Amino acid sequence: AGKHQLPGGHLEVGETWEECAIRETLEETGIELKKCYFAAVTNDVMPEDGKHYITIMMVATCSADQEPKLLEPNKSDGWSWEPWGKLPGELFHPLQKLHASNFKLPLPSAIASAAFPSTAFSPNCAHMP
């Protein structure tokens, strides 16, 4: 609570990562994603919460005229567009871990054409170079 994060949630039974990202983003923000691809994975041990998650990060495109809406006010204080290099305030653990790594957010044109490369996984944080 009180930390900046991306839209997300748990996979439904039989759901692909892409389907989950599209559904969760729509449910939480009203934004309809177009193309959606795997970007990174983080291994997130959060002893203060008694949790250990593997977090799958996805990248996607959407039309430029969409603005996020607060559709789940019991779970979030709101949404905003922020530059990757200047994320504000305290970040949710998986996002902080990815942001502190050497992850480079692909350009929208690369996402739209699926032109960004794949990468090998490390046990701590894997991402596209």
Average pLDDT, to the nearest integer?
Answer: 85
Q: What is the SS-derived class?
A: alpha+beta
Helix content: 10-25%
Number of helices: 3
**In percent, how much strand structure appears in the residues?**
15-25%
**Run of helices and strands:** HEEHHE
Biggest sheet, in brief? 3 strands, antiparallel
The counted number of beta strands is 3
Question: What spatial form do the alpha-carbon principal axes imply?
Answer: globular
Sheet with the most strands: spatial strand order: 2-1-3
How would you sum up this structure in a few lines?
The protein is α+β, with helices and mostly antiparallel strands.
List the helices and strands and how they pair.
Layout lengths: L16 H13 L3 E14 L4 E12 L30 H8 L7 H6 L11 E3 L2
Antiparallel strand pairs: 1-2, 1-3
Protein architecture, described:
The protein is of the alpha+beta class and 129 residues long. The chain is 21% helix and 22% strand. The protein has 3 helices and 3 strands, in the order αββααβ. It has helices at 17-29, 93-100, 108-113; strands at residues 33-46, 51-62, 125-127. A hairpin with a 4-residue loop joins strand 1 (33-46) and strand 2. Residues 118-124 have low confidence and may be disordered.
